[in-house]
Design goal:
Layout: E1 7-16, E2 18-28, E3 34-44, E4 47-52, E5 57-61, E6 63-68, E7 73-81, E8 89-96, E9 98-104, E10 108-116, H1 117-128, H2 135-155, E11 162-166, E12 170-175, E13 185-186, H3 203-212, E14 215-219, E15 222-223, E16 228-229, H4 267-274, H5 287-293, E17 306-312, H6 313-324, E18 331-339, E19 345-352, E20 356-360, H7 362-368, E21 379-385, E22 391-399, E23 407-408, H8 409-417, H9 422-429, E24 434-437
Parallel strand pairs: 1-13, 12-20, 16-23
Antiparallel strand pairs: 1-10, 2-3, 2-6, 2-7, 3-4, 4-5, 6-9, 7-8, 9-10, 11-12, 14-15, 14-24, 17-22, 18-19, 19-20, 21-22
Helix pairs in contact: 1-2, 1-3, 2-3, 2-8, 2-9
Length: about 450
């Protein structure tokens, strides 16, 4: 538990060799000098170098800390977002707060933003979804994001953030954010989207932060590790399908509406679920609503509740070889071995003419089977056979967007649009958790 607002270190750029930065107001070096304007940052012989527009050296060191004057901001022109996902692009973004430039391994540097948690959250809830989304959704998102972040900070004390079980027959990998060294979180989808003041364009965002300031989801006397995702596809997932084999009372699988459905027990159950569009809060095709709640680039993915991917066999073989680093030869079959209650596969057998391996968990499966990432690992596999008896196409019929654990963002936004309160939204997705103000 905590009793005061923490400051957060967010890596905006990771392992860059050079970048430009515009200081929109005064920033102070450790020796007290004030600087402003356009600067360049370089990795230089194991150090980080800051030079002005006339190429005069301003500072050099393993770390350079720039303290922001009140109301000063800075702008970066080349921030990558959606890294390795299908919506990856580069944006210009502006930020408040202090700047830390840290040399990494002698070849690159991180650019880190130090900012109070509540200011950070105002950007997160505007970056994860649209700042124009309903107020009660923004309140729910603020509480979930705040809870996840502080719970994650306590997990950073653990020695490993990436876990793997690898042998000749099985590769099981999951990633969490306490593997970051030297900063708390990154600014992209791997942690939480944080796109600075660029995205804070709504009075509702500030209302959501102010009215929920210091409120956390709590269970068993601990702050909840409150996960969230874009769309559950009708049923949320359990924690162990995506991360370590651990059960949390507040992260149970729930139906994303008031209708209870039978538990998924077989591949036939998965086929029935994923070939239909059962009622759910996140089952919406309302374009006006989606434009209200989703950021612009997320609106480019309209088929999130149910989706289909078709690969030529040789195309899939090339993707798997590139993403796994292994040559399976002819891909003969994709066989789900273990599914969670939402239908998400967390163990998948890939049978090839040269190699057969079981891969997991859900994110690794999504990564291996797509040039970027599949929307989710909730899919069923079918094949078409050519005249020579070989597989011609693999067809993945899927549902949902993301890991499916915790808050379903689109479902929660629809709930808020229908008049449900943020307390009701949180109670729906986080079984038995309570709200508690800690500062």
């Amino acid at each position: 538990m905590i009793d005061r607002e923490p400051k957060i270190k967010v890596a905006l750029l990771q392992n860059y060799n050079e970048t430009g930065i515009n200081l929109n107001g005064d920033y102070f070096l450790p020796d007290g000098r004030a600087i402003r304007g356009r600067f360049a940052v370089y990795a230089d012989d194991g150090l980080v170098l800051l030079v002005d527009s006339s190429e005069n050296e301003i500072a050099r060191g393993g770390e350079i800390f720039l303290s922001a004057a009140e109301d000063s901001t800075f702008t970066l022109n080349d921030v990558k977002i959606g890294i390795d996902f299908h919506w990856q692009r580069t944006q210009e973004q502006s930020f408040r707060g202090n700047i830390l430039l840290r040399a990494e391994y002698g070849l690159s540097f991180h650019l880190i933003n130090e900012i109070p948690l509540e200011e950070y959250l105002a950007s997160v809830i505007s970056s994860e979804m649209s700042a124009k989304a309903p107020l009660d959704f923004l309140k729910a998102q603020a509480i979930v994001a705040r809870s996840w972040l502080v719970a994650m900070l306590s997990k950073k004390k653990l020695p490993e953030g990436v876990a793997a079980k690898k042998n000749e027959d099985e590769i099981i990998v999951w990633q969490d954010v306490n593997d970051h060294d030297g900063f708390d979180v990154c600014a992209d989808d791997h942690c939480q989207r944080y796109q600075g003041i660029t995205k804070i364009i709504s009075e509702n965002v500030q209302k959501a932060i102010e009215s929920t300031r210091g409120f956390y989801l709590v269970s068993g006397g601990q702050i909840c590790d409150a996960r969230y995702h874009k769309s559950c596809g009708g049923q949320t997932e359990i924690f162990a399908s995506a991360w370590e084999d651990q059960s949390m009372d507040y992260l149970q699988s729930i139906t994303d509406d008031a209708v209870q459905r039978p538990a998924m027990k077989s591949e036939e159950d998965a086929k029935r679920l994923l070939n239909l569009r059962p009622q759910a809060y996140c089952n919406t095709t309302d374009e006006i609503l989606l434009k209200l709640i989703l950021p612009d680039f997320d609106q480019e993915t309209p088929d999130f509740y149910r989706w289909k991917v078709v690969y030529k066999r040789h195309e899939l073989e090339a993707i798997i070889k590139k993403k796994s680093g292994m040559d399976f030869g002819e891909i003969k079959d994709l066989i789900p071995i273990e599914r969670g209650p939402s239908g998400r596969i967390y163990k998948l057998k890939i049978e090839g003419s040269k190699k057969t391996i079981i891969v997991g968990k859900e994110l690794e499966i999504r990564r291996w089977l797509s040039p970027s990432h599949l929307l989710s690992s909730a899919f069923v596999v079918s094949k078409t056979i050519a005249d020579d008896g070989l597989v011609e196409n693999y067809i993945l019929q899927g549902g949902g967007w993301g890991h499916g654990v915790g808050l379903c963002q689109i479902g929660a936004a629809v709930m808020a649009q229908r008049g449900l309160t943020y307390e009701e939204i949180l109670a729906h997705y986080f079984t038995g958790a309570i709200l508690k103000k800690l500062y």
